[in-house]
Amino acid sequence: METVGIIAGGIAHDFNNTMTALMAHIGLLKLKLTEERSKERLNRMESVIRRAAHMTRRLLTPGPRRPEGPTPDQPG
């Protein structure tokens, strides 16, 4: 099981490096573009990359998972 964890960690590291490069390129494009529609598309791309990063962290975090969204003691 330890080996699987090491392999998963390596894959997650490579995946995060790729996402970081994508975010950097999106940031550069946003500086150069003037069309609002294009900037909105880039914003959506950033959102997808952030969700993927969050999913990667959740997959690599050991232990029980809490449900997403508000809980009874947290307003939505």
Sequence-ordered SSE layout with sheet pairings:
Blueprint: H1 2-32, H2 36-60
Helix pairs in contact: 1-2
Notes on the structure:
- With 76 residues, the chain is mostly helical.
- It has one domain (2-60).
- The chain has 2 helices and no strands.
- It has helices spanning 2-32, 36-60.
- α1 (2-32) runs antiparallel to α2 (36-60).
- It is elongated and about 50 Å long.
Multimeric organization: single chain
Structural class, from helix and strand content? Answer: mainly alpha
The amount of helix comes to over 70%
The helix count comes to 2
The unreliable regions are none
**C-alpha Rg (nearest Å):** 17 Å
Distance between the termini: 37 Å
Tell me what portion of residues adopts beta-strand conformation. Answer: under 5%
Tally of domains: 1
Task: Tell me how many strands there are.
Answer: 0
* Elements, N to C (H/E): HH
Largest sheet, if any?
none
Principal-axes shape call: elongated
Average of per-residue pLDDT values: 83
